[in-house]
Amino acid sequence: MQLNFIANASMASASGRTLAVLDPSDGQPFDELQRSNAQDIDQAVHAARQCFDAVWLKTSAAERGRLLMRLSHKVAEHAEELAAIEQRDCGKPTKQARADALALARYFEFYAGACDKLHGETLPYQDGYSVLTWREPHGVTGHIVPWNYPMQIFGRSVGGALAAGNVCVVKPAEDACLSLLRVAQLAAEVGFPAGAINIVTGYGHEVGDALARHPGIQHISFTGSPGVGTLIQQVAAERHCPVTLELGGKSPQIIFADADLNAAVPVVVNAIVQNAGQTCSAGARVLIDSLIYEPLLERLGQAFEQLRVGPAALDLDVGPLIRQSQQQRVWDFLSDAQVAGIPMVAQGQIVDEAPESGFYQAPTLLRDVPVDHRLAQEEIFGPVLCAMAFEDEDHAVALANATRFGLVAGVWTRDGARQFRVAKRLHSGQVFINNYGAGGGVELPFGGVKSSGYGREKGFEALYGFTTLKTVAIRHG
Question: Is the pTM of this model over 0.70?
């Protein structure tokens, strides 16, 4: 039985109700969570407010940094434990779960060093005045964390908020709570004051809604679907609460004829099968120069056929999807492709050891996907790669920009001038040239444009969103 974590203590929900925790690898329950409600959120916000006013606001930036560094070291020490928790809770292959735990440690390390680097400015003004700006925390920030990368998104969101001087109330997705509850316990062990980090579990429409509506929450960070992001904005707007939103993508990888295909192929494949395609920045569309369309599809198809899918503990190329409804969503997209006559180039293989009750989907490569088909327009959130050909640079850019999303794009070309021309024309929050994701560096600001959201997390840029700017003008004499 997993309990909420409020004010450095494990607590049952006010309702007394629970939710089953399922292992995606076999679809079977193995634990229980608290099905919390607005009363639990109110308790967590109250604890956070007390912490902020009594302790955290008076804690120096240097000391906040020391606490975050201790937490980074603690997470690294417990990386294998956290990876095992994430593996079973989310269905991640071992190597992916371990990478997430180490990334969490790196986020805390980065923000530990940033705490005392968040400077204001002095501004030139009229004679007889001194004008300066201060960066101040919002106070109590709310964080709604999705199920696909709970540890990583907790690190970039909560880590940045704490570094900027805020205290946090976190609502994890009901499908992925276990690792974050453990991290909160580790934070208490290294000395974070009671109320600095609070975790309340439950359904989005009950707990997430209560968090977004609570008058004591002064900033909301949300990662999830555009539809829920719209609801968060509407609720927050009623009390003029600022938000940071990362709302998914339909990210293109553009491959020109002069690209280094040996370098591109494994990256393109990994960008759609990592975490079973359940990644906001997944490279879900591959746009290929018509001069190399057929031979590159053949190479990609051969790579897909080598992919193996199975239980997380087997540590194969791809694990299960998070739940049955997500599996059905992917099946529905592939059914639509079949009805529309969209050709399938290749699929990976689900191994015999995979239980039929698990939520598996073989990676699938489709070709000649029409630009206006839902497969090319909507976020599938599964290991399905949609290929289409382009005739020239203008056509490539038009295809890349032809969705409502604008999170990430990849450009593969040896032409230096083209690299900059295309990057400038793409409607995207991030553009990666001859790579995709840059190794997931925590230093790189991350966020989108259009329906992919606004605001930035990761990197130093995130600290600006987790603070407010105060201008102080002093008249001399």
Answer: yes
CATH class, domain 252-440, is alpha beta
Across the strands, what pairs with 289?
Answer: 390
Q: Strand locations in 14-116, DSSP E?
A: 18-23, 28-34
Identify which of 397, 465, 455 has the alpha carbon closest to the alpha carbon of residue 426. 397
Residues 6+ apart with CB under 8 A from 328: none
Average pLDDT rounded to a whole number, residues 38-58: 98
Asked if 246 is an active-site residue, the reply is yes
Length of the chain measured in residues: 477
- Between the alpha carbon of residue 70 and those of residues 3, 76, 86, 102, 454, the distances in Å are 24, 10, 22, 14, 31
What the block records as the tokens of 394 is 């203008």
- Residues 410-464 have pLDDT tens digits of 999 999 999 999 999 999 999 999 999 887 789 999 999 999 999 999 999 999 9
420 φ, ψ to 5°?
Answer: -75, -40
**Letter for the amino acid at 403?**
T
Catalytic residue chosen out of the listed positions 115, 280, 379, 386: 280
Give the count of beta carbons closer than 10 Å to the beta carbon of residue 179: 25
Backbone angles phi, psi at 79, to 5 degrees: -60, -40
Secondary element (H or E) of residue 244 = strand 243-246
95: amino acid identity, one letter: K
The mean pLDDT of 43-55, rounded to a whole number, is 98
Q: SS3 for 287?
A: strand
How is the chain split into domains, by residue range?
Answer: 4-247+454-474, 252-440
Burial class (CB in 10 A: 0-12, 13-18, 19+), 120: middle
CA distance 347 to 307: 8
Q: What is the CATH number of domain 4-247+454-474?
A: 3.40.605.10
Q: Which of 86, 174, 206, 246 is catalytic?
A: 246
Cα atoms found within 13 Å of the Cα of residue 248, Cβ hemisphere only? 21
End-to-end CA distance of the chain: 65
